[in-house]
Backbone:
């Protein structure tokens, strides 16, 4: 019993400062965006490229899907199939999946990213941007109510949110998404 107690205390003494340092290193300093704007979000692609959204959005029309829990991935996949088949290869459109991972997982971020690399085809590694940090400000700024759902945003290059929806593809939100994409693509001269 005594050895376990000592070992536990030793692990706490070692790990607590490491976690505190990691939290401060990866803490996102964000400013509250104007209404209708996508907030600043810092992450890294599975290829190792650091990005800051919306500043690093390359295309006129950008589709961003955020997931806050691993169990939301099947919901994300319903959108990914539609987007990758019809929109992402299109000139002027980019697509990103953004797993929003809590600061608590920073000590094993390298392992989580490796698991994702193993499960995602290599040609899509640059489309997956992992965020590690404080998620609660994003819950408020993006009006996230159900952390087990996924959230799709259509955002222009400047960060203006043109469309948003929640959950898996359904008849209704697929129709409204297609309508928003057509309208946005037309307004940007891409159709």
Residues:
């Amino acid at each position: 019993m005594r050895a376990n107690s000592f070992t536990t205390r030793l692990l706490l003494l070692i790990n607590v400062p490491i976690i505190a340092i990691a939290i401060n290193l990866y803490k996102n300093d964000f400013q509250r965006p104007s209404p209708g704007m996508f907030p600043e979000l810092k992450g890294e692609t599975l290829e190792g490229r650091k990005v800051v959204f919306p500043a690093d959005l390359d295309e006129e029309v950008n589709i961003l899907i955020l997931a806050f829990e691993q169990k939301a991935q099947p919901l994300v996949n319903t959108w990914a199939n539609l987007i990758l088949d019809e929109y992402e290869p299109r000139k002027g459109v980019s697509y990103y999946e953004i797993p929003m991972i809590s600061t608590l997982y920073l000590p094993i971020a390298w392992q989580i990213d490796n698991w994702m690399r193993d499960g995602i085809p290599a040609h899509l590694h640059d489309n997956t941007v992992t965020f590690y940090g404080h998620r609660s400000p994003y819950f408020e700024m993006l009006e996230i109510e159900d952390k087990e759902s996924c959230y799709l945003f259509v955002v222009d290059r400047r960060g203006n949110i043109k469309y948003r929806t929640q959950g898996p593809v359904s008849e209704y939100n697929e129709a409204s998404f297609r309508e928003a994409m057509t309208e946005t693509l037309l307004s940007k001269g891409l159709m």
